[in-house]
Write a structure and sequence with these properties.
This protein is of the alpha+beta class. It is 51% helix and 13% strand. InterPro entries: LSM_dom_sf, MS_channel_1st, MS_channel_C, MscS_beta-dom_sf, MscS_channel_2nd, MscS_channel_C_sf, MscS_channel_CS, MscS_channel_TM-2.
Length: 597
C-alpha cells in the first residue's frame, strides 16, 4: 500500500492539534516563579551530592550563575521592585543613583523588540559558558535595540568579598542603556485590548498581554497550517513523484513537524513584534524549547516509520526474510534511541545535569546491572540473532524441544507458532544459547529407512533386494543419484538389516511425504517379489506342517542372481556409471492409478 495525498484539504484535525499546541504553550505559564525557583534549588541540591562546590556564602539574589542572574532580574521587574533589579546591573558609583531608572529602561528596551535567550539555554554553572568564544568572564544572554541600534546583552562575572562569583549585566551593556529613553509607541497588544485588561496586572504584566499570547498562539498555528498545506498542495500538483513512495511518506513525515516548528517560530516573532512584555515571553521560554525538541524528535520518529515501512515492503517484495528481520529490529531500536534522546533532552532543558546523573549511576551501577541482567542478556541475544541470522521470520525450526514457525524476533523475546497453533515465547538470551535446527534452509530432504528382512532370506535373495532397491533409487526422478545407496548393514537377532540412504530433490516437506510414500510402496513390492518378507521382533516356532518360505519365488530370485553372475552383470558392490545412466528416470512418477510398477 502506498501513501498518497489527496488534493482536497481536510480541516478536521486542526482543532485537536491547535488545542494541544495552545495548552502546551500555556502549561508552563501556570507555574508561579516561586515554584520554578524551588525546582532550581532542588536541582542544585541534587547536583551538589555528586559535584564538589566551593563553600561560598549564599547569595540571596541568586547571582552565582548566569541563569540565576537573569531569572532574578526578570522576577524583580515583574514585582516592580526596580531597586532590587538594579543589583543585577554592574554599576559604577555615578550610575548607582540612577540604578532604578536604568533597570526600568532596560525592561522597556526588552519589552519593545528586545529578547532574552530561553532560560534553559543560559548556563547554570558558576563558571558560565566556556564554549562561546567570549572569554571566561562573559556570557551573551540576549539583545535589545536603543535609538535604532541593536546591541547584545552580556553578563560578566565579578567577585564578592568572599571571592565567590557574582554575575551581573556587564558595564558595557549598562553603558548602552540610554539615560533618557525617547517616548516609545504604544505596543500593538495594548492598542487592541480594552483598557480594563491593560491597566489591571497579573504577575507584574497587564492581563491583556496574557490574552494576547493566547491569540498569537492561535494565529501562529493557523498561519503555519495554511502555509504548510499550500506548499503541500503545490508539491502534489507540480511534482509527480510527490505522490509516490518513498517521497510521499517523507513529505507526510515532515508535514506536522514543520507545521509545529513554523507555528513556534511565528509565535516568537509575533509576540516580540506585538510588544508583549519580556516577563510573559520568558515564562514560555523553557516550554518552547521543549516543544522545539519534541518537534525534532517527532520528525525523527516519523522518518524512522517511513523508511522502516519502505524497507519492510521492499524486503517482502524480494522475499528477503533476513533483511526483513533486521529492518524490524532496527526500527524498534531506532525508536527506543529517539525516546532516550528525548528524555535526556527534556531533562537537560529543565536544568538537570544529565552528565552528572549518568555518572551517579556508577554508584548504583552494580545493583542496576544485577537487576537488569536478564534484560541486557535478552538484548544481546536479539543482536546476536539479527547479526548471525540462524533463523529468520517465517522459518520452520526446532529450538530445544520447541518446533514451529518463527513469527517475530523482538528485542526481548522471539515468538514461535507451533504445529498445535500455540505461540511459544522464548527470551532471546535463552534462545541464542540453545541448539537451533533450521529446517527452512534445506535444499533437499534425507530419505533413510532401514528394512529388516527375515533371517531365512538366502544370500542370493539379499543380493536381489540390494540390486532392485538401488534400481528404484537410481530410476526415480526425484532422487539424487549421487547420494543413492542401499547396503546390508548388519545381522540382527531376528532380521537382516538393509539401510537405504538417499536425498529427495525437494525442500517442500509435503511433497517429500508424497515421494517417500511412493518409494516405500515400490520397495515393499520388491521385498514381496524376492520371496522374503519383513521381519518382526518375535520368535518363530517351526512345526512339521509349516510350509515355510515360498520355494517358487526363492528359486526365481536365486535364478535371477545366477543369470546376473553368468552374464557378469551383478551390480554389487557398486552400480556402474553406464547402468546408473540407463536407469535414470525410467520409473514413471507420479505412478499411474496410484500403483507402483
Amino acid at each position: 500500500m502506498f501513501i498518497s495525498f489527496k488534493p482536497s484539504i481536510q480541516l478536521k484535525p486542526i482543532p485537536v492539534l491547535a488545542i494541544i499546541f495552545i495548552l502546551s504553550l500555556f502549561l508552563l505559564a501556570l507555574l508561579p516563579t516561586s515554584g520554578q525557583a524551588q525546582l532550581t534549588a532542588l536541582k542544585k541540591e541534587a547536583s551538589t551530592d555528586t559535584v564538589a562546590v566551593p563553600d561560598w556564602p549564599v547569595d540571596t539574589l541568586g547571582r552565582r550563575t548566569p541563569r540565576g542572574t537573569v531569572q532574578g532580574f526578570i522576577q524583580a521587574i515583574a514585582d516592580e521592585n526596580y531597586s532590587k533589579a538594579a543589583y543585577y546591573l554592574h554599576l559604577d558609583r555615578k550610575q548607582r543613583k540612577q540604578g532604578e531608572q536604568l533597570a526600568h529602561t532596560l525592561q522597556r528596551l526588552l519589552d519593545h523588540g528586545g529578547k532574552i535567550v530561553p532560560y534553559s539555554l543560559i548556563s547554570d554553572a558558576y563558571t558560565g559558558r566556556t564554549d562561546d568564544n567570549l572569554g571566561p568572564d562573559l556570557d551573551r544572554v540576549g539583545s535589545a535595540t536603543a535609538n535604532g541600534e541593536t546591541f547584545d546583552l552580556f553578563l560578566e562575572k565579578t567577585e564578592d568579598k568572599a571571592g565567590g562569583p557574582i554575575w551581573l549585566f556587564s558595564a558595557q551593556t549598562v553603558q548602552r542603556i540610554p539615560e533618557e529613553m525617547e517616548q516609545t509607541p504604544t505596543p500593538l497588544a495594548d492598542k487592541i485590548m480594552p483598557a480594563v485588561v491593560v491597566k489591571n496586572k497579573w504577575g507584574g504584566v497587564p492581563i491583556g498581554h496574557w490574552f494576547a499570547m493566547l491569540l498569537i498562539a492561535l494565529l501562529s498555528y493557523a498561519l503555519a497550517w495554511s502555509v504548510v498545506r499550500a506548499v503541500q498542495f503545490i508539491l502534489q500538483v507540480s511534482w509527480r513523484r510527490a505522490k509516490e513512495e518513498p517521497i510521499a511518506g517523507v513529505i507526510k513525515a515532515f508535514t506536522l513537524p514543520v507545521q509545529l516548528y513554523l507555528a513556534l517560530w511565528l509565535f516568537f516573532q509575533l509576540s516580540q513584534r506585538a510588544g508583549i512584555s519580556i516577563i510573559v515571553r520568558q515564562k514560555f521560554s523553557v516550554l518552547t524549547v521543549i516543544i522545539g525538541l519534541a518537534v525534532f524528535l517527532l520528525l525523527l520518529w516519523r522518518l524512522v516509520d517511513v523508511f522502516g515501512r519502505f524497507l519492510e515492503r521492499r524486503m517482502i517484495r524480494h522475499q528477503h526474510q533476513a533483511g526483513l528481520s533486521a529492518v524490524l529490529f532496527l526500527r524498534r531500536g531506532a525508536k527506543i534511541a529517539v525516546i532516550v534522546l528525548g528524555v535526556i533532552g527534556v531533562l537537560s532543558t529543565l536544568g538537570f545535569d544529565v552528565t552528572t546523573g549518568l555518572a551517579a549511576l556508577g554508584v548504583g551501577g552494580l545493583a542496576l546491572a544485577l537487576g537488569a541482567q536478564k534484560t541486557v542478556e535478552n538484548f544481546v541475544g536479539s543482536v546476536t540473532l539479527i547479526a548471525d541470522q540462524p533463523i529468520r521470520v517465517g522459518d520452520f525450526c526446532k529450538v530445544g524441544d520447541t518446533v514451529g514457525t518463527v513469527e517475530t524476533i523482538g528485542m526481548r523475546s522471539t515468538r514461535i507458532r507451533t504445529n498445535d497453533r500455540t505461540v511459544v515465547t522464548i527470551p532471546n538470551g535463552d534462545f541464542s544459547s540453545q541448539r537451533i535446527e533450521n529446517y527452512a534452509h534445506r535444499d533437499r530432504i534425507w530419505f533413510h529407512p532401514t528394512f529388516g528382512v527375515r533371517c531365512d532370506t538366502s544370500p542370493n535373495q539379499l543380493r536381489y533386494l540390494l540390486v532392485e532397491l538401488q534400481t528404484i533409487l537410481y530410476s526415480h526422478p526425484k532422487i539424487d543419484p549421487a547420494s543413492a545407496r542401499v547396503r546390508l548393514v548388519g545381522i540382527g537377532e531376528y532380521s537382516y538389516n538393509l539401510e537405504v540412504f538417499s536425498y529427495v530433490l525437494t525442500s517442500d516437506f509435503n511433497q517429500f511425504l508424497e515421494i517417500q510414500e511412493d518409494l516405500l510402496l515400490r520397495m515393499m513390492d520388491v521385498v514381496e517379489a524376492s520371496g522374503s518378507g519383513f521381519a518382526f521382533p518375535s520368535q518363530t516356532v517351526y512345526l512339521g506342517k509349516d510350509t515355510g518360505k515360498s520355494e517358487e519365488k526363492t528359486q526365481a530370485a536365486e535364478q535371477k542372481v545366477k543369470e546376473w553372475g553368468n552374464a557378469h552383470d551383478l551390480p554389487l558392490p557398486k552400480f556402474s556409471d553406464d547402468r546408473i545412466q540407463s536407469l535414470r528416470n525410467s520409473i514413471p512418477y507420479p505412478p499411474e492409478n496410484g500403483k507402483s510398477k
